[in-house]
Design goal:
Distance between the termini: 17 Å
CATH superfamily of the largest domain: P-loop containing nucleotide triphosphate hydrolases
Helix content: 40-55%
CATH architecture of the largest domain: 3-Layer(aba) Sandwich
Structural class: alpha/beta
Strand order of the largest sheet: 3-2-4-1-5-6
Order of helices and strands: EHEHEHEHHHHHHEHHHHEH
Strand content: 5-15%
Shape: globular
Length: about 325
């Protein structure tokens, strides 16, 4: 898919939420001519700024970012959509002589970009509506129960609170008669994306969890509750795709009077910690990741620069 002659090879920066991925990318931009390709499943949505820790406008003026603010909150977004949009962006960045740096904690999106996906047939609208009606009428637990019957492998692998993935898995198995794992085992429709290097940021679990708690509190101070109120006022439905994300669904419950604020924030922090644990497990299974200690940003930056430089020297030697 890539070739070294088309420009600098693509760099990945991965790791759990709140570990410092965006900060590392911005720091690298002071040393390398790069542009950031967002691989966060929520930062694609317009209006979801504070609760997704989206790079600020100032940061986006400093370094060009792609695939941010491209969808309305009601629009679904899948790993396949991400790959379809990201590939031409990566190619264009390279053609202009800059380095694409893919930054995000959505592990399946990153894997889809690098390795490709098998071609799952389009899901009929009637099936989509059937699944969503089950969800609206009986709740996500009922969707998960039916998924367990039809596709137990996916039901086991997908976190039961991950609304979009649970709905998607049930749609696929109803529509095609095959579970997601069966589809993923097929050869990808398109080839692999060549990667220059994979950088992973890590933190001791206690420190990571502290950062998550601090981030949730800071988001509230920055106006997160007001952000969600405004989205609802503008017509975003509580059932919108984006509002199924950790944090947003809890804040919606608070705004609707179902939960006090303390409960919503405690549940957000707890679910985010669980999500971060799953992210760590996912990325630890990935091959060829150069792990950097997020406790010491300057050291991580120096180490990342060294990895990138050595990779380029090796690539030049091979060609």
């Amino acid at each position: 898919m890539d070739s070294a002659g088309q420009g600098p090879a693509t760099i990945l920066i991965v790791g759990p939420t709140a570990v410092g991925k965006s900060a590392l990318a911005l720091a690298l931009a002071e040393r390398l001519p790069l542009e950031v390709v967002n691989a966060d499943a929520l930062q694609v949505y317009r209006g979801l700024d504070i609760g997704t820790a989206k790079p600020s406008l100032e940061e986006r003026e400093q370094v060009r970012h792609h695939l941010i603010d491209i969808l309305d909150p009601s629009e679904p977004f899948s790993a396949g959509d991400f790959r379809r949009l990201a590939l031409p962006v990566v190619a264009d960045i390279r053609r202009r002589g800059k380095c694409p740096v893919v930054v995000g904690g959505s592990g399946f999106y990153v894997r889809a970009l690098v390795e490709g996906l098998s071609a799952i047939p389009p899901i009929p609208e009637s099936v989509r509506e059937e699944v969503r009606e089950l969800w609206r009428r009986d709740g996500l637990a009922a969707v998960g129960k039916r998924l367990l019957t039809l596709d137990p492998v996916s039901a086991e692998r997908i976190p039961p609170e991950d609304t979009q993935r649970v709905l998607r898995a049930l749609e696929v198995v109803i529509s095609t008669g095959r579970g997601l794992a069966d589809w993923w085992s097929d050869e990808p429709e398109e080839g692999r994306l060549e990667i220059g290097c994979k950088l992973g940021l890590t933190l001791p679990r206690a420190l990571l969890y502290d950062r998550i708690d601090q981030r949730v509190a800071e988001m509230v101070r920055e106006g997160w509750i007001e952000e969600v109120r405004e989205l609802l006022r503008r017509g975003c439905l509580p059932t919108s795709a984006a509002f199924q994300a950790i944090g947003y669904r809890q804040v919606v419950r608070h705004i609707r009077g179902e939960w006090p604020l303390d409960r919503a924030l405690q549940d957000t922090a707890r679910e985010t910690r669980r999500f971060a644990k799953r992210q760590v497990t996912w990325f630890r299974k990935e091959q060829d990741v150069h792990w950097l200690d997020g406790q010491f940003p300057e050291r991580a930056l120096s180490a990342a620069s060294g990895v990138i430089l050595r990779g380029r020297e090796n690539d030049q030697a091979e060609h």
